[in-house]
Structure of Endoplasmic reticulum protein 44, isoform C:
Amino acid sequence: MTSDNIDMTLASNELVFLNFYAEWCRFSNILAPIFAEAADKIKEEFPEAGKVVLGKVDCDKETAIASRFHINKYPTLKIVRNGQLSKREYRGQRSAEAFLEFVKKQLEDPIQEFKSLKDLENLDSKKRLILGYFDRRDQPEYDIFRKVATNLKEDCQFHVGFGDAAQAMHPPGTPIIVFRPDVALSHENDETYTGSLQNFDELKIWVQEKCVPLVREITFENAEELTEEGLPFLILFHHPTDHNSIKDYKSIIERQLLDEKQNVNFLTADGKRFAHPLHHLGKSEDDLPLIAIDSFKHMYLFPHFSDMYSPGKLKQFLQDLYSGKLHREFHYGPDPSNDIEPDPHTGKGTSPPESKFKELGPSKHRYTLLEKDEL
């Protein structure tokens, strides 16, 4: 791929899978023959023009493209669907078979059809859902809905009903799209889209706002991606079956810390799966729920979980991170003006526990990292 052909390629294919590499990078050289083999397999599986293309970009020669796609490590594998860059990179296994399976999955229809309204009662209450009610599949509005679903299928589950299955939910000839939140994990309510169903960008922005929540769950599968965003983590560690603390934490973040979303990643974590960071803080499953900051240098414990319910306490915790107060107090004890009880696990004269989540970022055993200090 070069500056001369990349835009035409992205615009004329449903899916483009891009390998950003450098000739001098050993991981790029290991990947090259595997990616070429995958291209042959995928072409054999999907021979029709305009369906899927694999492309590679030499970032030393095509510096403008590398800059445009914000490449900071080699190799980086990105996906463009219907001309829109996916915010998620490919971070899975590097084999021809894995690439083929990934592409197959990307090309699957992201929308599940329901045959009656009763089907909607059985949907997962821990997932964020977008529900579409249409007269017919050949409506132009449905084509827009399908394209949005294709681009955002990792963020929400999409469901659709046609004709009789949906007629009770919308006036004839007027499609309706509804967002249903993860009611088991939040205090949010259903919301109906009021914008134009003929406008792809408008619908995509609305769905994105609903489907990419302010508070996300961190897992071992998405930790590398979240770490690479480079923002400190504010994490609620909870017991796997404790949904109430998640609901309350999300609600408090949305009410009190919305203006901090450019500075911090708000996360929840299964305290059983992430037992190692807890142990690092001197805590165990018995101490859940608890809240901590991981700044990618150190971890800091929010002294008392119940203080989350006191307006301003979580915000002050973040301010104390920015000002260096958390780090200072770990070394020298509470400031004279501080009325917060010192935590028994944070002795004076010690350094705060080192970051554990930084270890889950892009590995130097898998990538050549261009800016090693960035994380």
Observations:
- The first helix runs from residue 6 to 11.
- Confidence is low (pLDDT under 50) at residues 344-349.
- The CA atoms of residues 154 and 208 lie 11 Å apart.
- The chain has eleven helices and 16 strands.
